[in-house]
Each structure stands twice: as structure tokens, then as C-alpha cells.
């Protein structure tokens, strides 16, 4: 179960596992490239908060090797159990309330997590305190406004985006979360703070497109109950997402970086 503000996501275990894995298919390649760019190396101590299905933590464990350390933290750790044999420490953790080990990590990373939390400043402060001197905080959250932009039409799936993300915002999700990550990092003790954005151009019917189908299928009852869209429109939109003739862009994922002074 994943909690975002007052809104509790409770899909079936299988559906949530599939959502996490399709999220990794969408975003892991760019995240792993940025780990490499930050210089993650053998012997590093790394903390992955909101570890999900464990893809990023597994890569980090391979990179830091037996002389390094990787901690994978999440509210729900059942999907991370298999990482123990890969040299990963699994930690059940709620970033809203639980403190992290202070001053222990060369890298602290969280993706698409902080923008869901009611007190984002407190969460970023907790993550920052976990850094060693010279350690990097690497946050990734989204700006959802460009989602579904496409050559198909100016309004391709825009009614779906507005309905789904509008309801999520009412429940605590910040659709411009990546921008606020940067602002919070600039206001804290970190140096060398910078940010960049990336999008993925995806094709209907792909694993990446499946991620958005799962999102819409989960949001369907709330969208329909609120009178924002009828069931027939949801069915139509799901079919559009499954059509390989359709290509569109993801949200902008904003990567923000900052280093604890040595």
C-alpha cells in the first residue's frame, strides 16, 4: 500500500507490482545514467528511498560492490526481499515520520516520492541529514503538464490528464513537484545544486505505455464517481494508449542534485 497525503492507493498486489515495474521500464535507464554521471563507484554507501520493485537498488549494489553499502527503504518491503542476496539492506521506512541514519551516505536518491508527501520540506531535510560530507542528494519528481503531448492532436488524452491529475492534486500530489525539489535544495545546506529535465517519447502498446494504462485504470472509479469523464471515455482512452500508432511524451522528470559540503 502506498500513501500520498490523505489518499491511499490500494490496488491488488499484482497490479501494484506491475505498475512499479513499468515505472522502472520508463525511468530507470535515465536514472542509472545519472548515477553513473555522479560517479557512483566501488565502496560508496548509497540509500534508495521509495525503492519500489528494487531495480535502482540492484544496479547500485552491482556498482558499489562488496566494499560498498546499499540500503533500500520503502513503506512496503515485500517486493524487496529478493535483494538481500544481492548485497542490499532492506529497511521498512516511512519518510513522513521516520528519521534516517545521519551522515552515513555518499548518495541518497528518491524518485517520484517527495511530490506525494504532505510536508515536502521535512522530507528533504531528512534526506539531506543522511548525507556524509561530500555526499550527493539526487531527487527526481515530475512536472505533469506536458504529459500526452502528441502529433495526434492538440488535445490528445488531455481530458484524461486533467481529470486524473486534478483528483490526485486534491489528495496531496504536487504536479510540479520537481520544481519544488530544486527550491528546497537551494534553500538548504547543499552546494553545487543544479537540475535538469527529461522526457520519454513512448509508443502505444509498450511497457512504458502500460504504466499509464494502469494509472488510468486505477483512477477510473474516482474519475467516473466525480462526474469528470464517463466509463466509455476511459475505455476509449485505454484503447488509444494500447494503439502502436500513437506516440506521446511522458511527464517531465526533473532531476535535482546537491552536495553536502565536505
UniProtKB/TrEMBL annotation:
- What's the name of the protein? Methyltransferase type 11 domain-containing protein
Which Gene3D superfamilies does the entry mention? Vaccinia Virus protein VP39
Looking up SUPFAM superfamilies in the UniProt record yields: S-adenosyl-L-methionine-dependent methyltransferases
Q: Which Pfam families match?
A: Methyltransf_11
Decide whether keyword DNA damage is in the record: no
User: What InterPro entries does the database record attribute to this sequence?
Assistant: Methyltransf_11, SAM-dependent_MTases_sf
Taking every annotated instance into account, which residue ranges of this chain make up the domain Methyltransferase type? Answer: 47-139
- Keywords of the record: Transferase
Amino acid at each position: 500500500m502506498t500513501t500520498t497525503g490523505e489518499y491511499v492507493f490500494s490496488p491488488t498486489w499484482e497490479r501494484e507490482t506491475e505498475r512499479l515495474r513499468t515505472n522502472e521500464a520508463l525511468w530507470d535507464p535515465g536514472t542509472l545514467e545519472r548515477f553513473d554521471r555522479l560517479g557512483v563507484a566501488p565502496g560508496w554507501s548509497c540509500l534508495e528511498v521509495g525503492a519500489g520493485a528494487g531495480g535502482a537498488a540492484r544496479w547500485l549494489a552491482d556498482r558499489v560492490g562488496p566494499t560498498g553499502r546499499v540500503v533500500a527503504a520503502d513503506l512496503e518491503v515485500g517486493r524487496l526481499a529478493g535483494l538481500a542476496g544481492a548485497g542490499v539492506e532492506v529497511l521498512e521506512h516511512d519518510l513522513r515520520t521516520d528519521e534516517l541514519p545521519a551522515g552515513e551516505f555518499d548518495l541518497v536518491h528518491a524518485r517520484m516520492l517527495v511530490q506525494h508527501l504532505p510536508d515536502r520540506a521535512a522530507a528533504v531535510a531528512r534526506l539531506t541529514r543522511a548525507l556524509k560530507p561530500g555526499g550527493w542528494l539526487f531527487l527526481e519528481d515530475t512536472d505533469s503538464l506536458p504529459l500526452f503531448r502528441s502529433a495526434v492532436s492538440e488535445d490528445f488524452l488531455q481530458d484524461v490528464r486533467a481529470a486524473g491529475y486534478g483528483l490526485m492534486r486534491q489528495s496531496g500530489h504536487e504536479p510540479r513537484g520537481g520544481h519544488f525539489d530544486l527550491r528546497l535544495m537551494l534553500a538548504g545546506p547543499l552546494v553545487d545544486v543544479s537540475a535538469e529535465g527529461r522526457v520519454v517519447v513512448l509508443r502505444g502498446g509498450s511497457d512504458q505505455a502500460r504504466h499509464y494504462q494502469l494509472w488510468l485504470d486505477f483512477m477510473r472509479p474516482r474519475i467516473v464517481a466525480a462526474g469528470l469523464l464517463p466509463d466509455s471515455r476511459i475505455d476509449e482512452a485505454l484503447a488509444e494508449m494500447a494503439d502502436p500508432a500513437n506516440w506521446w511524451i511522458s511527464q517531465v522528470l526533473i532531476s535535482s542534485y546537491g552536495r553536502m559540503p565536505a
